[in-house]
Amino acid sequence: MPTFPFTAIVAQDEMKLALLIAAVDPSVGGVLVFGDRGTGKSTAIRALAALLPSMKAVPGCPYACDPASPPQACPHCAKNPRPKKNVQVPVPVVDLPLGATEDRVVGALDLERALSLGEKAFEPGLLAKANRGFLYIDEVNLLEDHLVDLLLDVAASGVNTVEREGLSLRHPAKFVLVGSGNPEEGELRPQLLDRFGLACEVVTPTEIKTRIDVVRRRDAYERDPDAFCAAHAKSEKALQKKLTSARELLPSVDVPDAALESAARLCLALGTDGLRGELTLMRTARALAAFEGASTVTDEHLKRIAPSALRHRLRRNPLDESGSTARVTRAVAEVFPG
Ligand SMILES: [Zn+2]
Hints:
By secondary structure, this protein is of the alpha/beta class. The strands form 4 sheets. Strands 4-7-10-1-11 form a 5-stranded parallel beta sheet, sandwiched between helices. It has helices at 13-24, 41-51, 75-79, 102-106, 111-117, 126-129, 145-157, 190-193, 208-223, 225-249, 257-270, 276-291, 299-310, 324-335, and strands at 31-35, 55-57, 87-89, 93-95, 108-110, 121-123, 133-138, 159-164, 167-172, 175-181, 198-202. Strand 8 and strand 9 form a beta hairpin. Helices cover 46% and strands 15% of the residues. Zinc ion binds next to helix 3. Keywords: ATP-binding, Bacteriochlorophyll biosynthesis, Chlorophyll biosynthesis, Ligase, Nucleotide-binding, Photosynthesis. It holds the Pfam family AAA_lid_2. This is Mg-protoporphyrin IX chelatase. Its EC number is 6.6.1.1.
């Protein structure tokens, strides 16, 4: 069955934008999606991956290396001469199940084979599969903290290092980490929360018209997926083009001092810890500008992305009972009057 088209997803604008921004600039860090069950979180990620242009890869490489990347960065490509012909592969979306062992996630070094045959035997794990794509964890708040920490480390560095009893192996693992969860079922530690680039909230739509739209589209898709996808092919192509141009434009988008000053004032008003908030705000606003074909970041970009970039970085304020989204909205109104 073809994937449900991204452009056919009704409402959930904040989540869609956060995912698009991560696709424009994966260095903004992972995306955290909090909210009700059945709001189409995993549908959106799969749809986004299917929308992205397929990628050139080195045939036979378990990490699906980019043929333009240096072979030394990959244990497979360093040993095997690169074939003349490349393959086209879809952008991977890898699901990380909650019960997965660390070996299954990071990969396993076979010590016995190493000792008896003197060769480094490595069984690549889910992080290898996710290279150049997305790693999706449903209910990330139920995953063990040390595993979340490890995933965030690898996502930030783009390299997975596996070490066991004196043996070690490194392989490329560049991916966008997408975690979803229901905050009622357990919270993420604040130290982990703020390492995600963007956080968005999704709710089941309450507007009747939107609900009808969701039901109709889901029904039409399930009855005839091919016809449904064909009907959205044009808008999918258009969005794909927009993403490709955004990626090309990104390196030349200008971030003027005035925008950085606004970002700093916003973070000061909210009392976010450290400078990670500003850094993320700058990067995400730049990716948003690129997505919209703008060559300069403006306050408008900052305002729109501020809730997703900052709401998970606020310290608890016992005197302020309002939710984090409301606090960001209020700070935005203070810093950008009018
Ligand atoms: Zn490789």
